[in-house]
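Below is how a single chain appears once it has passed through the pipeline. First comes the sequence as given, then the structure the pipeline wrote out for it. We keep one example in the README because the format questions we get most often are answered faster by looking than by reading.
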Amino acid sequence: MPVNSERSDYMAMKEKWSRLRDCFGGRDTVLKAGEKYVPSLPAKDANENEAYRKRGNFYNALKRTVQGMVGAVFQEPPEVECPEAIKPYLDDITLTNVPFEMFAQETGNEVMLTARYGVLVDMPVSLATTNRPYCIGYKAEDIINWKTTRVAGNQVLTMVVLRESTEVPDPKDEFVHEVKTQYRVVQLTTAGCQVQMFKENENKKGEFVTDGPPVTLLRRGIPLDFIPFVFICAINATPDLEDPPLVDLADVNLGHWRNSVDHEYGLHLVALPTPWVSGAKNSGDGSTPMKIGPSVVWELDIQGSAGMLEFSGEGLASLVSAMDEKKKQMAALGARLLEDSASVQETASAVKMRHSGEHASLRTVAQALEVGFMLVIQIVTWWVGIEEKPVDTEVSVELKKEYLDIKASAQDVQSALAALQANEISYETWWNILMTGGWGREGVTADDEQKAIDERKKKKELEKPKPEPGVVPVKKIVRDANGYISEIQG
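Resulting structure:
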């Protein structure tokens, strides 16, 4: 079996990943896909069909949703707890000047998009260059094959085949580089964990041959007894494939693209009025086109007539309605950033209930990322530390998992104020409601606010006009419109 053989479940998932990638890539990518997403019009040549598709507008809900969700998870840097000696490694986790925070965001983007990412922790073959482990990230499509074996009740990864791209300089031109594919095979053998590279046979295109003997990964001169590769998915950190959480959103997004292409093409056909004429004397045999304009006269027979064809009907309106419906579907499937505001004001609790499923999923992804990052840093820490096993290292990674930023409605505030006035809640509880609902001042405690209120009251008392010395306030009796009598100060 050749090294570039793909697992059957991997091949079954490739089409979903392809749709997600194309959709995420935006208008240029889906336009380049041609008939894959927008079938050609019948009886039209290639140029006409290309022009037909180019009129469409791609509404990239998927990309905005992925970016919005990843931005919510990483709006605050990951909190990493690890030995101090390891922290400098996190400043360049890949040996390509990529810090861990940036590497983590890239991983989060991939997991949100395809529900799969892989990280290989490796040690440079040339220890003269550097004597430290580093990380290599692999997209879902690049993890083409893997095997697991049950050992002592646990599923153990025994092989993983990783596809890589490398730039090869042209020996005849220093400014030209060719991108070639190679494969990295990591296997757990009786001799320990070994890595072997396969490159394309120069004499036979599409065939890959070994590029030297396998290299055994060592730690303190002892071969590794496990493969230092971590699968990071949307739910867990296992090799099992998962359905991407936003694949349904991508399908609706592509449907919206098809509607847009048809709508714009329809507008192109019917937007401009078309002149027509019947019984024109100067029309000749029809071989010479008739001209129209302010200086052109059409002579008509007695029964002749002329006019303008203009579009009428509900055809294009139905396409607009279909696109609007798909926008709502995309909002329901996860594109919260694209969702229109509710027609009536909602309470904070109602908004939370409406988005609970979506954010529960986002929290699940964040938790899976935490586990994956922890495993990666544990391997790095173990490789340069003294612990017996990676699980013995004290490492933790925490991501932000509170994503709803909802301002409490005026009705919520009024209800809380009524409860405060009725002595049913404390002032501290009232202030907490204001703070969590977005009505309070950042960094101001309940005590600080109470002091500010008291000081304002004192200031108002001092600003009140005082009666002149020797002048006694006179009380007056007044009667209002309903006949009620009251006393006021004169």
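Residues 348-384 form the longest helix (37 residues).

See the next section for the split statistics.
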